[in-house]
DNA sequence: CTGAAAGCGCTTACAG
DNA sequence: CTGAAAGCGCTTACAG
């Protein structure tokens, strides 16, 4: 039995000193080997002795000590508006997977119901020693926060001069969707927009409007509604659209979540999708596949998004040359919620 | 200008020493005040000086140093099978909210696609200095893992002698659901069970079977299917049930996610819910409200769950007397997916 | 290739 | 009520 196994009762957590003693080397050698910096600095025999001693003791380096000394935590924070939206759960998963490959881990910070997100981010700094930030918040942070996050954060699907951004090709995604509907013969196309006044949503609306114009389809004010990201709100908005005297034959939604409300309103009004009404979403989240019939939507590829996000953030953190990413390509996914308009 | 503002270029992060210097007190006093332990130990004037100095410098205690010294990180890990299931997103939110009140924060660990979750948990120990664990994994951990987690973890909706558990009253929830269907006149009730062989699902099945027995309804082997938590798998299983010669008039699902597959199969077979088929879920997740018509389900109250979970875990960590919680009450939520069977 | 040592920024007992 | 000091467990420059 080694000396370190003499502790009675409470199993004390082994430290690098315990490992060093058992392996017959210095504590520094243990640190070098476990930190993967032993090449050419610690003899092969010592390395083996250290590794097996570590294994026997169940040693794992103390993260707080490591972070304190090195100034690196390898923790990335992903800030999203709401995890209850399955789209953001998928974004988290994609970022998590990509980060793991690079030796980082991701914590999830939800802004929902939070007034003071400056405080929240401060807390995260304190609690987790977050090294880098991915803000998928659709809202450009305020000036003091930008100062705090300088050279540590990137913005996804939003733009500011103050911070590197990963852009999504909302433009083409939305345009493809509009073309799709127009090709199906729709001209009475309403837009159910997201309530938050973010650039990503303004962009959707601009493309909606321009595409109508290009096809000489009149833009109607009564076909424009905005809704919060709740089923109740989107239901109400859709109900209002569908009970217009001259109701739309298609409703384009800014998000799959909003489309779910449209399905409910259609059901309440005994309208069949896609026979009586075409509906489209945005995101290609789980929601789009749960809906029956499945939702035609614009896919945001969360795996690629995660990889590019992490690559961009790490380049910022390491002050390397920032890689250039073209806006992420979004593709139209045609499913059962859209159909050619029937002659009546 | 204070002495600490003389650094040129890189804004160095202020430390307690900087605050102490500016406030004209000792570093220890700063620690006491910021740590909320100043009562009766630091004079009122000093406290004020410290607080304003901290504010002016934008000081926040270094978490790594704090954790290293005190051995406390105030981080709780929540381990779930899959965040893409909106139910677990809601569980996270509930736990997060409850933990925040107690000064803890919650990181989310997803087991999906992970083979070796022992390693994952080890990693989390290393990376985040996790103090306490909530395992909502529906699988009792292996022996070495139990050793690692002793006195640090609780299990939710699962039972083992090795670990405190928070139980859900699956029994009554499932029983209420079955009563509901039987009262509606259903006798051909199939059970679409979850594939994982966990106690929580075995329990659902036991209650299903017993309730049939109590009502002299024959138990049929061809009405029993299991499905993984994917839409494709549950669709296939439901399709198989619905194309039986003597197809069920109701399908009871172990989870809302599984019910979504049933909706798809019903749609494919031109069966109308609830007219031709009643469907029920379990969890009352976002999924149950997205489905059209909305799903009759058993509600697991994630807010209460979060509060009890955190309360139980903290009592374990603080080695206080463990509070006793009765199994969490689940309530039947009747919505549009169930109806009285029609006379044919 | 190896060892001895400094020090990251705190918390906390201890002496006044 | 205040101050001086030890020490948490590492990483990393430095001297051999």
TrEMBL record, chains A, B:
Query: Which keywords describe this protein according to UniProt?
Result: DNA-binding, Transcription, Transcription regulation
The record ties this protein, via SUPFAM superfamilies, to:
lambda repressor-like DNA-binding domains, Periplasmic binding protein-like I
SMART domains cross-referenced by the UniProt entry: HTH_LACI (SM00354)
This protein's source sits in the domain of life called Bacteria
Q: Which Pfam families match?
A: LacI (PF00356), Peripla_BP_3 (PF13377)
List the InterPro entries.
HTH_LacI, LacI/GalR-like_sensor, Lambda_DNA-bd_dom_sf, Peripla_BP_I
> Domain HTH lacI-type, which positions?
14-70
Protein name, please? LacI family transcriptional regulator
The source organism is: Dictyobacter formicarum
Per the UniProt record, the lineage of the source organism begins with: Bacteria, Bacillati, Chloroflexota, Ktedonobacteria, Ktedonobacterales
